[in-house]
Write a structure and sequence with these properties.
CATH class of the largest domain: Alpha Beta
Strand content: 15-25%
Largest sheet: 10 strands, mixed
Helix content: 25-40%
CATH architecture of the largest domain: 3-Layer(aba) Sandwich
Number of strands: 14
Radius of gyration: 20 Å
Shape: globular
Number of domains: 2
């Protein structure tokens, strides 16, 4: 093995894994660049929900993707055969593939995989078809496309068909940790030689009557009608999360392949931790043990000390329990270094993209490393005494960022942490 080949392996001989492309569809931007610009300007994408004429809701705001036209990415007939979450996945994948400069024709198609997480899959299709069933005469009125449009794995399936790639292809569904778990599983598959390239991340389009009703009735959503004070992670005034939609997709590949084709390497994926709280169906562990262990596992895999972590993109939903317990988890995982690390919740601007959050927030970490800047937590004006770390309030902070950690926590006690590092060969 040559010196160059050795440099592309870790100390255990495993493949090093790098990020070479990103794609974002979000409430604050329809590309990676517009998304990042909005975060650094502290501009949120939360808007009042327009009355639909059918229902009254207890929730009045959401973070919807504005001005999205699926026909920019596919023909009209194809778009009508996809749920909105699949459309988002295709659009974000198009940008990620284009920005990476990768040519799949140069690879054995069975060496390229697609792993895309989604917490709920085609919820809009499910909602609409149930209304058809009830209003128009029963099961015979259900569309024959209902199942292939609704199932959660179809985003991964559609993306694989788009590019003709035939490697491992599946969906991770772990609630709000889905996108992060998908990226972590793709990282491990490449690291250990089961794939050379992965298209991975998360996609979600949950803003539907049934989801708005379910989340608001369980008191998870902020009931305010003021978009500017709706998403307040770590603030004492926080009153729940803001439901959002979109997709975040990454191209991961072996470092040696990226170098061979002279690709721009955005960051290296170096660690992944996945745990369960085994505590409650919706509440996180009040001692933060599961989340702390996920962070510790990611650092251990990477061989990184807590004091080496520059930035944490927190799960930071703006719910009373999550923010306090995640703060405890960060302290447990990093010890004294927790007082030094920069933290922020970009959900203060994007809202909570559920299963897509891990993909979008991983990209925020990667861009933070690229540009040496910490995106802010906007709206943080009344700090909660239980949340007493540095959450980068209001404006971005300029800082050398060499290591960034992204946390995603989900209902059912799911915890996922991803660790990214500035790439050095």
């Amino acid at each position: 093995m040559t010196d160059k080949e050795n440099s592309c392996r870790d100390q255990n001989g495993n493949h090093r894994v790098v990020v070479t492309g990103t794609g974002v569809i979000s409430p604050v931007g329809l590309t990676t660049d517009t998304f990042w610009e909005a975060l650094l300007m502290g501009r949120h994408g939360i808007r009042r929900l327009e009355p639909d004429g059918k229902y009254e809701y207890k929730v009045h705001v959401a973070a919807q993707v504005p001005d999205f036209d699926p026909t920019l990415y596919m023909d009209r007939k194809e778009s009508r055969r996809m749920d909105r979450y699949c459309q988002f996945a295709i659009a974000a994948s198009e940008e990620a593939v284009r920005s990476s400069g990768i040519d799949f024709a140069a690879y054995d198609p069975f060496e390229v995989g697609v792993i895309i997480g989604s917490g709920v899959g085609g919820l809009r299709t499910m909602n609409d078809q149930f209304e058809e069933l009830i209003a128009k005469g029963g099961p015979n009125r259900v569309s024959p496309l209902f199942i292939p449009m609704m199932i959660s794995n179809m985003a991964a399936g559609q993306v694989s068909m788009r590019y003709g790639v035939k490697g491992p292809n599946f969906c991770v569904t772990t609630a709000c940790a889905s996108g992060a778990n998908a990226i972590g599983e793709a990282f491990r598959a490449i690291k250990h030689g089961y794939m050379r390239v992965a298209i991975t991340g998360g996609a979600e389009a949950p803003i539907t009557p049934i989801a708005l009703g379910g989340f608001s009735n369980m008191k998870a959503l902020n009931p305010t009608d003021d978009p500017d004070t709706a998403s307040l992670p770590f603030d004492a005034r926080r009153g729940g999360f803001v439901i959002a939609e979109g997709a975040g997709i990454l191209i991961l590949e072996r470092m040696e392949d990226a170098l061979a084709r002279e690709a721009t390497i955005l960051a290296e994926v170096v660690g992944y931790g996945a745990t369960a709280d085994a505590y409650h169906i919706t509440s996180p562990d009040p001692e933060g043990r599961g989340a702390a262990h996920a962070m510790k596992s990611a650092m251990q895999e990477a061989g990184i000390r807590p004091e080496d972590v520059s930035y944490i993109n927190a799960h930071g939903t703006g719910t009373e329990l999550n923010d306090a317990y995640e703060t405890l988890a960060i302290k447990a995982a990093l010890g004294e270094a927790a007082r030094m690390v920069s933290i922020s919740s970009t959900k203060s601007m994007t809202g909570h993209l559920l299963g897509a959050a891990g993909g979008v927030e991983a990209i925020a970490c990667i861009l933070s490393i690229r540009d040496n800047i910490i995106p802010p937590t906007i709206g943080l004006s009344t700090p909660d005494p239980a949340c007493d770390l540095d959450y980068t309030p209001h404006v971005p902070a300029t800082k050398k960022v060499t290591v960034a950690l992204s946390n995603s926590l989900g209902f059912g006690g799911q915890n996922a942490s991803l660790l990214f590092r500035k790439s050095e060969v």
